[in-house]
Amino acid sequence: MEKLVIEGGRRLKGEVEVSGSKNSALPIMAAALLTDEPCVIENVPKLRDTLTMAKLLRTLGKAVDFENNTLKIVSRGPVSHVAEYKLVSTMRGSFCVLGPLLAKLGIAKVSLPGGCVIGVRPVDLHLKGIAGLGARITIDAGYIIAKSKRLKGNHLYLGGVFGSSVLATANVMMAATLAQGVTTIDSAACEPEVEDLANFLISMGAKIKGHGGPQITITGVKKLHGTTYRIISDRIEAGTYVLLAAATKNNNIVIKNASLTHLMALVDALQQSGIRVTQDQGKIYVKSNQTLKPVSITTHPYPGFPTDLQAQFMVLMALVPGVTVINDKVYPDRFIHIAELNRMGANIRREGTNAIVQGAKHLFGAPVMASDLRASAALVIAGLAAKGTTEIHRMYHLDRGYEDLDSKLQALGARIRREKE
């Protein structure tokens, strides 16, 4: 096991390139199960999660070659309908093989998922949608078993207690591509990653309309074919670099290969604080005023403020004089990082689904523990902004969602290194 050691307080400058989207890559990789023909997926980040999904596809009967951020997925014989606990339990995103396996084979046996410990993340909307297409669903010994000779299109509502679900929308949309008739998904997730998946499926021959909006219509086809497709850049990685530049007061960091249109809720919050974020010729620039204002935010599904940037935004507000209230309506328990930031001199307390942040003048280096993927990124930002040395333990979480982060930061001038525990 490794830890990350950061010497904070250094001036950073230079260009940093954003990798392909992890949250696009995982369902798109799963969608390759819908065809027997080869699929080539470009701009795939080499992460713990994408490598896990590649392993899962291999256990299901696909041959997967991963080189230079390009995946080639081909069939090597009959596809298995069983996605085993050993892999699915380590990563929630792997649960999205349920829809493709069921649609292609008429049966799927998929372990209940795992992943980051950030509160209850049920699969009820997945099962509601799949059952709505005519599947018979049972749960046995920790596995979801779904069966159907031929799925049938239906009008489905996929809204949940905390809004729409990206993975549930993805699962149902993939299953519906081979269903008989027309499927309409109301309260569909609007995230760019869902739109990216839909565009990938369309390139395979699927008939989909309305993706990117709250109502998606899928007309089933008999067969999908192989394709070559390039996925979008990772908006959460881009947002993390934007917040890193703001929190460390570095105006000379340039962010490449990202779309600011995917981050407008973040841009709006930063503008209110006194931070100007612009894009010119594909590059993002961050300029901070000397005196920033506290800005309270509430996370929502896209296009609202992303829950995946909540922890990183909290670090910035911990360094802004005044009081900020951060409310996470997507994952109300996603506040484990508060205790670790307080170890570094932050003044944050939790009240229900709110975090109350009293801005501090400085943060100080300390040994801290990463609890999940985005908390890890927040602690990296805090370490870079802090005075002294920070050690981040359990930093394997970081490798689930950020490709070569330490190398990219070193290229900006950061003193950051990995060491054995």
Structure, explained:
The chain has 421 residues and is an alpha/beta fold. It has 2 domains: 2-18 and 233-420, UDP-n-acetylglucosamine1-carboxyvinyl-transferase, Chain, CATH 3.65.10.10; 22-230, Enolpyruvate transferase domain (UDP-n-acetylglucosamine1-carboxyvinyl-transferase, Chain), CATH 3.65.10. The protein has helices at residues 22-31, 48-59, 85-88, 98-105, 124-132, 166-176, 192-203, 235-247, 264-273, 310-317, 337-343, 373-385, 405-411, and strands at residues 2-7, 14-17, 39-42, 62-67, 70-75, 82-83, 107-111, 136-140, 143-147, 155-157, 182-186, 207-209, 215-219, 227-230, 253-256, 275-280, 283-288, 297-299, 323-328, 347-351, 354-358, 367-369, 389-393, 415-420. The strands form 6 sheets. It has a 4-stranded mixed β-sheet, covered by helices on one side. Helix 6 packs parallel to helix 7 (192-203) and helix 10 runs parallel beside helix 12 (373-385). The longest helix has 13 residues, at 235-247. It starts with a strand and ends with a strand. The mean pLDDT is 95.
Q: What's the CATH C level of the largest domain?
A: Alpha Beta
What class do helices, strands and sheet pairing give?
Answer: alpha/beta
Envelope shape: globular
Q: Report the biggest beta sheet as strand number plus sense, adding barrel if it closes.
A: 4 strands, mixed
At the fold tier of CATH, the topology name of the largest domain is: UDP-n-acetylglucosamine1-carboxyvinyl-transferase, Chain
